Amino acid sequence: MTNQQQKPFAQSSEENKQVILQAIEELVHDCRSVLEIASGTGQHAVYFAAQLPHLKWQTSDLMECHVGINQWLEEAALENVSAPICLNVSEELHWPDSTFDAVFSANSFHIMGRNHVEDFFEHVPKVLNPNAIIMIYGPFNYNGDFTSESNARFDQWLKARNPASGIKDFEWCNWLAEQSGLKLLKDIEMPQNNRILVWRNNR
Question: I need a surface site. Which of 1, 42, 79, 81 has the fewest CB within 10 A?
C-alpha cells in the first residue's frame, strides 16, 4: 500500500477547496498568518498554503487527526504550512500563545455541540491580531429555518450520530461573535447550501 493510499481523504474537501479559495483569497490578501481550526485531513491546508504562498498556515486539530494531517504536509513539503498543534476549542490551555491575522475553519460548527461553539467565540479573541478576520465555512440556518431540504436531512443525519451536533443558527453565532468584540464583515453564499461567515476583530 502506498503513502497516497494511506492518507486520509475527504471528498468534500476536494470538491470545495477551489470555491473556498476563490472566496477567501481577497480577504487574506493583506494577512501574513492563519490559524486553521479543525484541519481534518490536512487537504485544505496544503492546497491553500500552496495557492497563497504569502501566508504562514498553522494547522490544528484533536490529537487523533495529527497523523493524517502530517502525511499530507510531508508529501506537500511546503515551507509556509506548519505541523498541527493540538487544539480543543473548549480547553483554554490548548489555545496557542501566538496571535494570527486570520482564523479559518471549515465544516466544524455543525459537528460541534453548542457549548463548543460558545467556547470557540469565548477563546478565539486571544489569538487574534488587531483587525484580524475569522472565516467559518459550512451550513447555517437563518431565522430558525433550514435553507434547503438537503440541509434539513443533513441535520437529522448529524443528530442521529451525535445529538449534540447540528446546523447552527446564523443569528446565534453572530450574537456570540459580537459578544467577543467581532463585527460581521461578510456573509458569502457558497455552493451546496453552504456559507462563509467572516468577522473582523474590533478590539
Answer: 1
Alpha carbons 24 and 137: distance in angstroms, whole number: 10
Q: Which helix or strand (DSSP H or E) is residue 150 part of?
A: helix 149-161
Quick: pLDDT tens for 4-19.
558 899 998 999 999 9
Ramachandran sector of residue 82 (left: φ over 0; alpha: ψ -120 to 50; beta: rest)? beta
Residue 88, Cβ density class (10 Å: 0-12 exposed, 13-18 middle, ≥19 buried) = middle
pTM: 0.95
Which residue shows C-alpha cell 479573541? 125
The rounded distance, in Å, linking the Cα atoms of 136 and 163 is: 22
What is the spatial distance between Cα 87 and Cα 73, in angstroms, rounded to a whole number?
A: 18
CATH of 3-201, one of 2.60.40.1080, 3.30.300.30, 3.40.50.150, 3.40.50.720: 3.40.50.150
